[in-house]
Amino acid sequence: MPRQDQGMSSDRYQIIPRTLLFITKEDKVLLLKGAPTKRIWANQYNGIGGHIEKGEDIRQAAQRELKEETGLSVSNLKLCATIMIDTGDYSGIGLFVFRGKDPMGELQISEEGSLSWVPMAELHNYSLVEDLPVILPEIMKLSPADEPLSILYTFDERNQLVIKINR
Known about the structure:
The protein is mostly beta strands. The chain has a single domain (12-166), classed as Nucleoside Triphosphate Pyrophosphohydrolase (Alpha-Beta Complex). The chain has two helices and nine strands. Strand 8 (149-155) and strand 9 (161-166) form a beta hairpin. The chain is globular, with a radius of gyration of 16 Å.
């Protein structure tokens, strides 16, 4: 199908594509504590990730973000979830969540913040971004044969995050 037949129109719902990665080693997950100067999630822990650039597929973007933000690489990235974030506008966020384990390379300093290997059993002791306590345990309990989770984020009348996980 040619480009002009793809159905693009400024009045249709559009998404901004992003990646989110959770890399594990033994019983620990690699999290990034956002730099104090970050506009969003400053001083909070989140997975690794970022925007998908033009011309990249989602796996290439995930590998690139992992390398840029950590210096590490993994050969076993698995798509674990897709998250649609309904911002209430004509465009939302499409978040592609990957999991990988046993990374190769040495951790490097990141401008995004500081990296930490956090024991899964101690996550409750860390200042996590709002959705991590809900989605991270669900992602970690997926088996290799499981289908990716389908997750929808919306916001209620008080602008509070509402997370709906569809299995």
